[in-house]
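Standup notes
- DV: blocked on the single-chain target, sequence here:
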Amino acid sequence: MSEAYQELLRGFTITAHGASVELPSDVRSINKWVEILPRADLLKTAEMLSGAASRSLSRKYLGATRFNLMEALRPAVVDCIKGLDRHFLGSPLPLSSDRLVKAEHALFLHHTMAEAYRRALVELCHPEGDIPMMRSGNATACIARCLWHCQQVLLISWNLYRTAPSGIWSAMRNCYHYAVSVKLNNNAVEDGPLQQTVRPHGLFVETALMALINPLAFTAPELDQIKTITAGMAARCTVCNSAVSEHTAQLPRDEADGDGVETGYLEFDAFFHVLTEAVSANGGMSPILLPDGKTLPVRTALVKRMLRALGQASARSATRVYGEYPIDTVVGLSGVHFFAAGRIDFETYIQNLSRLSGQGISTAADWLDSGETPNHRLLDATVLDHSLGGYRLKWGVGQTPRARIGEVVGLNSAAPGVGEPDWMLGIIRWLRYETDGAVMAGIELLTRRCSALALRPVQGGHAGQLLRALEIPPLGEGLPRAFLISGRIEQNTPRLEVLYGFEPYRVLPSRTMESVLTETTALAANVDYTLLIEQN
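- DV (later): unblocked, structure below
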């Protein structure tokens, strides 16, 4: 018995779930059973399919029997999952209870089908792991189906910023390693329900590439583009047993795997060079030339973030301070402004500015957000670890923010409830929703002390409307300061009037107004903010 076949036998984790339904034992009966499924009731159909598929895993079959049964059942499963996906993909997070139920059904169906096809492969090649004569097509299909369903489990988890079910990566690795051992990894397989042709190597490598760039740091539309790029580049990347070049990374592992688990390596030279060549283009878009000759236009900012993720070795090697301690946080620019201004709403802030500066600023202007209330909420969080560049923190149950990638977060560096708050400013780079309702996030630090202010663009001697903003002093010497505003400024080099009203830690005499020339840059594409960098 080969070592790859022995690995294939390990780690079956699915237990019975859903309605108490026994799957018929022959293909003709399954076809009849599928015809009477209550398709109008999506959840009832999902429960019946989940129950039948998971209970079938407790039964033993000979040869290709399970494979044939799963092939008969799979079109109905794929169709049901597509219906479930429409109810929760793209929905605001965290999901409502009814959407979460549908997401869990979709995840379970994908996971169950992956395990069923892996078990079908074990039975097909029983007892020594050799592929029977004339069965290589069935074996390749088992491998490809298993890898595809595992990939979908990960994609859904990444889209929802959730932890994937345990054992997904070990199942993918074991299935792929077996494919390599029997030289089926590059064989093409037709997938009828998906109307596409797939290869085990492509499915495994494109999933590993996506994991490598930290998918929890990207939005769902960005992940769709990243999947297209990784799918196009998968054939140019290599799975190997050791680091063979600068651009080699260890294959992903499950959280339950220990550090001693050997996962193998992924060499991604071609992927890295394609991104590097694309980002050198001028303008806001970077055309990525894929090996099949197609060109995919992608935002330059997205390509840079992908390259940054691939180059995270230096960040991972940076000294991190571990130890859990509480911290006050507030999510969103308006909330940070409220607390950084001394718990003053923006309208009152403008009134104070008018009195301080003698500018006679009208508080009845149409730019004031009359619907805003000062009911901004401090959220208790726990810092899990931090480095000079940022924090990894967790919001517990009941403190869950409605956050997204790219949202700004205020972090009170003073001890909670002790002394004057001292607000640092960060940006959410990745999110993960835990099964217990907690939310974990990676926060990149923008500045260790921010100030609330108001600013207005000046063009042709005409001052525009006042905007809520935060001043961002640089983290290092010799770097320019920046300003973060709510909304968009289209001018590339606007001149700003900056109005100050609350600076509790300023040593020099307090400021009222100054004129600044800045350049605009995007903070993140999915948030309605503008980052303005001061020109030297």
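- Follow-up: The chain has 14 helices and 20 strands.
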